[in-house]
Amino acid sequence: MGKALDRAIAEVGGVEEQKNEILEAHYQVSKEIRAKAESDDVRDLGIIASGQMALHYWIASFGTVASYAASAGFPQTEQELKASVQEAKQADDQHTDIAQQILATQ
User: Fold this and answer.
1) Is the dihedral of CA 73, 76, 82, 88 positive or negative?
2) What secondary structure, in 3-state letters, does the chain show?
3) Residue 56 falls in which region: left (phi positive, over 0), alpha (psi -120 to 50) or beta
4) Are 57 and 23 in contact (CB under 8 A)?
5) Closest C-alpha among 3, 56, 47 to residue 27
6) Is the pTM of this model over 0.85?
């Protein structure tokens, strides 16, 4: 996913490097879940949920940037970002499948 965004940024002439506070917050929550979980299953489900929140953030962000690319006349970037959105959706589905497998064993 990152390569598509890097190409999109390069195509529009670059942007100033910025810290992504939203993803940093997701990472911090994931660390807290790992530290406070009362069982391995609870820990794993919490990590999956945290990962899915990050994926949903990427889906929304890349979808928006793909729309911007389309309106700005960058069809290749639009297509690459839409492909990244689809990859993130597939990863989200895989996370859900894993969570369901964990829950089925309880």
Assistant:
1) negative
2) CHHHHHHHHHHCCCCCCCCCHHHHHHHHHHHHHHHHCCCHHHHHHHHHHHHHHHHHHHHHHHHHHHHHHHHHCCHHHHHHHHHHHHHHHHHHHHHHHHHHHHHHCC
3) alpha
4) yes
5) 47
6) no
- Output the six-digit token pair for 11: 């195509």
Query: What pLDDT score was predicted for residue 29?
Result: 84
Q: Give the chain's mean pLDDT.
A: 87
Tokens 């990472």 found at: 27
Residue 7: both structure tokens together: 């190409």
What is the token pair recorded at 43? 């820990």
Tokens of 36: 């406070």
